[in-house]
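Before the break, one more example. Copy the sequence into your notebook; we will annotate it together after we see the structure.
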Amino acid sequence: MLQIPSPTEHRPNLGDMNSIVCFKACVRGLEEALGTRAAMVSLRTAGRARGRGLVEELGLKGSQTDPVDACGPLATALGPEGTRLCTVVAIRKIDDETYEVDTSETICSCMEEPGSKTELSFTFGALQGALESLLGVKLQGKQVASVLRGGEYDTVRFTIFS
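Here is what the structure looks like once it is written out:
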């Protein structure tokens, strides 16, 4: 299992949580420095690394666990009992090559105005990295619904990249 130093070793009073306000400031700074598109690519790449690491921490790397079956552990690790990145509501297998993930309260959509064109970046990448690690394949993804634009959930569809 991946050994990550305990944050309490270095932050005995503050622990491992950080504010959404600070995260969003990092996102805005990346967008200003790199441009919106390059910032999104960077955040998705960082998210993918986090998702892969999470699956390894959960002991599921290489297990070829169906992502639908891994919904519970992922939801726990990413939700209120874990890192609070988002609530994973459901993972659905659409066909042999396609999965959809419904999320709510994502760190990427919070503090955004209704109607905003903001898309999931870090959250998208974390979900992609986790599913890729579970399945042992590369995936292409697309956000197909957004709470900012009237969707019930932030939904991402992932298809096996061949």
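Strands lie at 87-95, 98-104, 139-145, 154-160. The longest strand covers residues 87-95. Try to locate both features in your own notes.
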